[in-house]
From TrEMBL:
Keyword Glycoprotein: yes
Protein name (record): Cartilage intermediate layer protein
Name of the gene this protein is made from: CILP
Key words, A-Z: Extracellular matrix, Glycoprotein, Secreted, Signal
Cellular component terms (Gene Ontology): extracellular space
UniProt subcellular location: Secreted, Extracellular space, Extracellular matrix
């Protein structure tokens, strides 16, 4: 640890002669005497007193900064008992054992003050050497034959009365038994009594006396020494030391301070304040000594951030409601304001807002604004719904909800394959709430199914039962859990981050698997799930991501892309080092980082002098493929507390380590140069700032501004740079950004198929938007990006934030893509002919937006994204007032837009699989679960998926159905749970063999958890098929676990589904998860692979098979062309009639995607040669 004192300025005024006389240059022993040489005269000065000896060598400073300061007071700070009270002489040498005289440097010394060497006094380009010193002190034990004294006692209390003089005493005793001690046994010294206090001063001092201002106690003989370090351990120069709000001193360039007269009574509080850091109160500890020492480590100001937003509530008129906001930050918030419909509520200044005896006019939106010394922050909106005393809390009439029926169940009454089963909106309701005042309701009530009726639908050769909602009511909400899962892989080649650590709020909560997979349950009351991925192998940059999750529950899949850490370069810290950043191929470097000499420090603040391995990884926005690797969500909190977006000009991650020790290092003042020619929008030059990422909140915080300055680059070229300064401390990720206020929202919906039915919208889809760099009017690279955003679709789609421009429609453009569980959804085609009806956006606005799917010009490019111009809607044009682009202030209109409003569309690639549940359930919305004996998933948040692997010997791909009925439970026996239709997948090497992984309903407890039901499962290949073989182990299990189902029909297979998770040896695959989609994906991957612990998207037809059928004759299609035409007649106007050829092409694409061992989420605009 390096220490520099404050009294040096006084010492410099001492005469040069006296300094040199007291400076011992070299020492040798002659006839028991110490001999020293004077640097001025060269004549020896002899010390014949044998009772003196030299201390050990001390080195408490390095020549960084102003020079090398070996101050006696600082040495005592760290080695309090190692140096005597009055040293006789001082000696100095370098750490290389070169005497001070031989260095040729100008130096200063005084045994009562110390030694110092100033860099500014040396020759041009030279700095002081690193010196060590030692002192000549009186021996503690005299060599004479006499007794030894014990230590002196502390000075006794001063007996003087106020404003009088008295004598203080101290004592010592002789410790020798046989010898006498010479010298006094008692010492005394004069002392002053405390000042007589004025009658109006009530301050009483337990130590010292009251000062003249009657606001503190003074102890004139006591000295308070201190050391202050900033965040990251650097010396805190200029830190203010205050007592009771009064400035006492500032720390010197070494972060040290010295204050006489402070009483060490255990009651005196000092406040340490430094710009950019949180003020810290420190109590001077009780001490009876003459010197006390404080060591202070400051923390940077922690911006206010929201821990808990107020919760939306539904109440009846006359009830009570409470809204709460929980805010964290250092210093903490000291002011709270509440707003109702954007109007400030007077006299509401607490963190909790309580509303009693509610009236209809109090309904609306509420939010809280907290503020303090570290800024301000606003919560999200919370909606208060107030229902009349005698009004239904839930509309008893169900909403319309169409479900798709099996392909052989066409309904003549509706001329379609759809049937309206109704549904209840998953909105909150008052329920049986009491009048207690609480932030979160103990029990949540939602509108749900109050009554269902069974209907029998006539199909081809059979009747299909379905449950129809006939009445809705208020009941307890379904308990749900939110989960995020996915893979962490390299952005360049998809290499997984194996066994990496995942941190939240600085605490490790999980780790990645061998293939980079992870799964995390989102804690309750989480507002922003900010996770940091740390690679143990040091291949990848530590990456902080904001992962979106579904607040209603369920799992959301994320592909976390990581930047590969740059290979470190070794630099000499005593020299100026410049690192150039920028990876765009064929373009000049974009950023320079300049590190001055002697700028590296250890984490404890000590100057680092060895070689440094420097790795700086730059995310170059001129390369659009890096967008997915951007950290966090490029947002910051503005002065008024609003969450505002940034537009990036590059991010860089810094890793400095000692070459030999590999210990992490900090760096002091570092300069950052941004080539101004890379900033295409001139208005950004004056508002460019440096930002650092807070890894706990995932928000960017300002580090400093940047200014324009011309610099010579090479011998002739002069360039203009934006220059900023920063310190590299505990944060290692930085950003070159500008705040952007031209903002809009884009409405996007995702669907299960290209039919684009309102009832087939898919929730939980991660939709991402990449804002491209402006093009019109700017000379720029159209492949560069400026911002990356993601949202999750809900029941009404999603609204994506984006930059937009009203004056120039093509100033900003954007790429939009969608991902569900690793599957990339397809956008609507734009070529050879653009169909506004399919796209979801009418003309002429669609033409203005210039919609283009990623394969518009090259059919080899993937079809999983589209690009648009971000043209802000004009308020004077009626066609632009109804989406799909909404002005920033119209977010609510975007979120609540009806289905008929313009929107962009994605659809899943329609695979060869159909699911039918007798009791309808939306797997994207766990809250849609209904409590019924015939529910396919009997217990919410415990979803068990089961598959049986069926091998088919046939020249054709065969559709296989599982019919699932109650088997042993008295409430469900003989009743249908549901159907599953799945088409087999052909073996890539054997043309006459295919296989199918067919889902069936697992056996187990039903919703009442009273008794189990062995599901009666029929596996029925459609066509002329014959059962050839049943897995022997599966057959033995079924025989030994009665009852045994009858299997007289060789065209099918019937079993009472096993209760146990059997595994691949039986051809049965099961998985239990908290999300149905995740459970099915894992079980399906194992089934494809034919193993119990692996996964594959390539069907292995000979591995882990349960059943084998041989089918002949012609291929049986899922539905005829005539049926396809019929089903299209009942669809909405956005539907199209597609022939078998198009359906076959989409099936082939679906099968091709299964055959891929990797799920690609790379930018589709540049991904070629993939179909």
């Amino acid at each position: 640890m390096k220490v520099k004192g404050q009294t040096w300025r006084q010492s410099v005024r001492m005469s040069q002669r006296s300094l040199l006389l007291l400076l011992g240059i070299s020492v040798f022993t002659a006839q028991g005497s110490w001999q020293k040489y004077n640097t001025e005269s060269g004549s020896p000065v002899l010390h014949s007193d044998d009772n003196y000896e030299w201390t050990t060598w001390f080195n408490v400073d390095h020549p960084g900064g102003r020079g090398d300061y070996e101050q006696l007071e600082a040495i005592r700070f760290y080695y309090r008992t190692r140096v005597c009270e009055t040293p006789r002489a001082i000696e100095a040498r370098t750490t290389d054992w070169i005497s001070a005289r031989d260095t040729g440097e100008k130096i200063h010394a005084d045994p009562t003050v110390g030694f110092w060497c100033l860099n500014e006094e040396q020759g041009p380009g030279r700095n002081c050497s690193n010196y060590a010193v030692r002192f000549l002190c009186l021996k503690e034990i005299s060599m004479a034959i006499q007794g030894t004294w014990g230590p002196w006692s502390n000075w006794g209390p001063c007996p003087a009365l106020c404003d009088q003089v008295g004598m203080q005493l101290r004592y010592r005793s002789c410790t020798s038994q046989m010898l006498t001690c010479s010298g006094p046994k008692i010492e005394e010294k004069p002392c002053n009594g405390a000042e007589c206090t004025k009658a109006d001063c009530s301050l009483h001092c337990v130590m010292g006396r009251v000062n003249a201002d009657c606001d503190a106690c003074m102890c004139e003989e006591h000295i308070l020494l201190g050391s202050v370090r900033s965040a990251g351990g650097l010396n805190a120069e200029g830190a203010a030391i205050l007592r009771s709000g009064k400035l006492l001193t500032l720390t010197d360039h070494n972060g040290h301070f010295r204050i006489p007269g402070i009483c060490p009574d255990g009651n005196t509080t000092m406040t340490v304040s430094l710009q950019g850091h949180a003020s810290l109160d420190v109590v001077v500890p009780f001490s009876s000594g003459r010197t006390s020492v404080l060591s202070v480590q400051l923390k940077r100001v922690e911006k206010l951030h929201i821990l808990r937003n107020p919760e939306s509530k539904t109440r009846r008129e006359g009830q009570s409601a409470a809204f709460c906001c929980k805010v964290a930050g250092t210093p903490q918030a000291d002011k709270y304001q509440w707003f109702h419909n954007n109007n400030l509520l007077e006299l509401r200044s607490e963190s909790t807002l309580v509303l009693k005896d509610l009236r209809p006019e109090q309904a609306g939106e509420y939010y809280c604004r907290a503020s303090g010394p570290s800024g301000a922050v606003k919560t999200k909106l919370a909606t208060l719904t107030i229902i009349g005393r005698d009004v239904h809390s839930c509309n008893p009439k169900p909403e319309s909800h169409l479900i798709r029926l099996p392909h052989d169940c066409y309904q003549n009454s509706t001329n379609s394959l759809y049937y309206d089963v109704g549904k209840c909106p998953s909105t909150t309701c008052p329920g049986q709430l009491d009048n207690g005042i609480r932030c979160n309701d103990n029990v949540a009530y939602c509108c749900g199914v109050a009554k269902m009726e069974e209907r029998q639908l006539l199909c081809q050769g059979y009747q299909l039962p379905t449950m129809v909602v006939t009445k809705c009511g208020c009941q307890k909400c379904v308990d749900t859990k939110a989960i995020v899962h996915g893979r962490a892989t390299a952005a360049d080649n998809g290499e997984p981050m194996r066994f990496g650590h995942i941190f939240r709020n600085g605490v490790r909560i999980s780790r990645t698997g061998y293939k980079g997979t992870f799964s995390i349950q989102v804690p309750p009351d989480t507002e922003r799930l900010v996770l940091t991925f740390v690679d143990n192998m040091q291949k990848f940059v530590n990456t902080t991501k904001l992962l979106l999750f579904n607040t209603k529950g369920g799992a959301v899949y994320h592909e976390v892309k990581l930047l590969r850490k740059k290979t470190p370069v070794t630099i000499n810290p005593s020299e100026t080092n410049t690192l150039e950043l920028g990876d765009a191929e064929g373009q000049e470097k974009m950023v320079q980082i300049q590190i001055p000499p002697n700028s590296f420090y250890k984490e404890n603040g000590e100057v680092f002098t060895g070689n440094v391995n420097a790795s700086v990884t730059f995310l170059d926005p001129r390369d659009v493929s890096t967008a997915a690797a951007a950290q966090s969500d490029l947002n910051f909190v503005g002065d008024e507390g609003d969450l505002l977006p940034l537009r990036t000009y590059g991010m860089f991650s810094v890793d400095f380590r000692g070459e030999e020790s590999n210990e992490p290092l900090n760096a002091g003042e570092v300069k950052v140069f941004l080539d101004s020619t890379q900033v295409k929008m001139s208005e950004h030059l004056n508002i460019m700032k440096l930002w650092s990422l807070n890894p706990e909140t995932g928000l960017w915080e300002e580090e400093g501004s940047m200014h324009l300055e011309k610099k010579r680059r090479g011998k002739r070229e002069e360039r203009t740079f934006l220059i900023g300064n920063m310190e590299i401390r505990e944060r290692r990720l930085f950003n070159l950004d500008v705040p952007e206020n031209r903002r809009c929202y884009v409405k996007v919906r995702a669907f299960r198929s290209e039919r684009f039915m309102p009832s087939e919208q898919v929730e939980g889809v991660v939709v991402s938007l990449i804002n491209m760099e402006p093009t019109a009017g700017y000379s720029t690279n159209p492949r560069a990006w400026g911002r990356f955003d993601s949202v999750i679709t809900g029941p009404n789609g999603a609204c994506l934030p984006a930059f937009c421009d009203e004056q120039k429609p093509d100033a900003y453009s954007a790429y939009v893509m969608a991902n569900l569980g690793g599957e990339e959804l397809e956008a609507v085609s734009s070529s050879p002919k653009l169909n506004p009806g399919l796209t979801g956006v009418p003309q002429p606005y669609l033409r203005k937006l210039n919609y283009r799917r990623s394969d518009h010009e090259d059919p080899r490019v993937k079809k999983t994204a589209f690009s648009i111009n971000m043209a802000k809607p004009s308020p004077n044009v009626a066609e632009e007032a109804n989406g799909p682009v909404y002005a920033f202030e119209n977010l609510k209109e975007c979120e609540e837009a009806p289905f008929s409003a313009a929107h962009f569309r994605f659809s899943r690639v329609e695979g060869d699989r159909y699911d039918y549940n007798t009791v309808p359930f939306n797997e994207d919305d766990p809250m849609s679960w209904t409590e019924d004996y015939l529910s396919w998933w009997p217990k919410p948040m415990e979803y068990r998926a089961c598959y049986v692997k069926v091998k088919v010997n046939s020249p054709h791909e065969i559709n296989v159905r599982s019919r699932n009925m109650g088997g042993t439970h008295p409430k469900t026996v003989g009743q249908l749970y549901g159907l599953r239709d799945t088409r087999s997948i052909r073996d890539m090497d054997h043309g006459n063999v295919s296989a199918v992984c067919l889902e069936f309903k697992c056996s187990g407890m039903l919703y009442d958890q009273d008794r189990v039901d062995r599901t009666l499962v029929k596996v029925i290949p459609q066509g002329s098929c014959k059962r050839d073989h049943v897995n022997a182990m599966l057959q033995d299990y079924l025989v030994n676990h009665l009852p045994l189902a009858v299997n007289n029909d060789t065209n099918e297979f019937t079993m009472l589904a096993p209760l146990d998770p059997l595994g691949h040896n039986y051809g049965i695959y099961t998985e239990t998860e908290q999300d149905p989609r995740t459970a099915k994906e894992i079980a399906l991957g194992r089934c494809f692979d034919g193993t119990s612990d692996g996964t594959s998207r390539v069907m292995k037809t000979n591995e882990g098979v349960a059943l084998t059928f041989t089918c002949g004759g012609r291929e049986v299609t899922r539905q005829s062309v005539f049926q396809a035409v019929q089903s299209s007649q009942g669809q909405v106007v956005t539907s199209v009639v597609r022939g078998e050829s198009k359906k076959t092409r989409r099936r082939q694409r679906a099968n091709a995607s299964r055959s891929s061992r990797k799920r690609s989420t790379r930018n589709p605009s540049i991904e070629q040669n993939q179909v």
